[in-house]
Design a protein that fits this description.
The protein is mainly alpha-helical. The protein is 82% helix and 0% strand. It contains 9 helices and no strands. Helix 5 packs antiparallel against helix 6, helix 6 packs antiparallel against helix 7 and helix 8 packs parallel to helix 9. The chain starts with a helix and ends in a 9-residue tail after the last helix.
Length: 261
């Protein structure tokens, strides 16, 4: 019965939500709103369970004298201090974030906001690292991604058209170098001449492309975002929602039971 009862509750809840979505009449019309209220209540309990799990995890580290135990001590002390501080400010001022609250003035403004800014600043380095790995021109697709990203970034920033000639020159020179290396690796004379010709065309195209993009760069950046990017984005969203629907059906029918573990 330990597994059957949660499965029955999941099936009934999921089925009622589907019915309430397609039949907006009583008694089903208000079910979705009622389920949303229950969801908020359950979320509150899950937050309590999450805090309890976090504190127990770090308490076990302290008891076992783990090498990271000092950090666990700091976390528990900080959690208790902030909790008591917030309760005290809430009782005194009616709201811990009241303008006269010391909790807002000293903890939130001078501690939490700078720490949050530091975390986001560190996140920027991870994003830059991921972008570097994703935009490495290892093939045609990666090269197109790199060029498109560069054009969009230059088209969206102020005075980006000033940098366009340098961006185009570097890009086309790199493309020409790739064509030359490919030509050297080829055995056939026809293929060698073809790649050398493509390298020469890339170098010749630097000046006219720079002039065109300097004038039409914002329009090109908008076209990239509104046509190819939006089409790929919609395709991704369709795949995500189909996967979400399939997973929801598996959970409602009891096929997927990993949440019971």
């Amino acid at each position: 019965m330990k597994k059957e009862v949660p499965l029955i509750i999941t099936f009934i809840s999921g089925f009622l939500l589907i019915v309430a979505l397609f039949i907006p009449h009583e008694p089903f019309g208000s079910l979705q709103e009622r389920f949303n209220d229950w969801y908020i209540i359950v979320s509150g309990f899950t937050l309590i369970l999450g805090v309890d799990s976090l504190l127990l995890y770090h308490w076990r580290k302290i008891k076992t004298k783990d090498k990271d135990a000092p950090y666990s001590i700091i976390l528990i002390i900080t959690f208790i201090t902030v909790l008591l501080w917030g309760i005290y400010s809430g009782v005194k001022h009616g709201n811990p974030f009241a303008p006269a609250s010391t909790f807002l003035r000293y903890f939130y403004t001078y501690m939490f906001v700078p720490l949050q800014a530091t975390m986001f600043a560190l996140l920027a380095f991870f994003i830059a690292s991921a972008a570097y790995r994703a935009f490495r021109a290892r093939g045609l697709n990666a090269t197109l991604l790199l060029v498109s990203a560069g054009l969009v970034m230059l088209g969206r920033v102020p005075k980006g058209e000033i940098v366009v000639p340098f961006f185009i020159a570097i890009t086309l020179i790199l493309i020409a170098i790739i064509f030359v290396l490919e030509a050297v690796a080829r055995v056939s004379l026809y293929e060698r001449l073809l790649y050398f010709a493509l390298a020469l065309i890339s170098l010749i195209a630097i000046i006219p492309l720079s002039i065109l993009l300097r004038e039409y760069l914002p329009a090109l950046a908008d076209w990239i975002m509104n046509v190819p990017q939006l089409g790929a984005k919609r395709g991704l969203f369709i795949g995500i929602w189909l996967g979400a629907i399939a997973m929801a059906i598996r959970i409602i029918l009891g096929i997927e039971r990993t949440y019971l573990k």
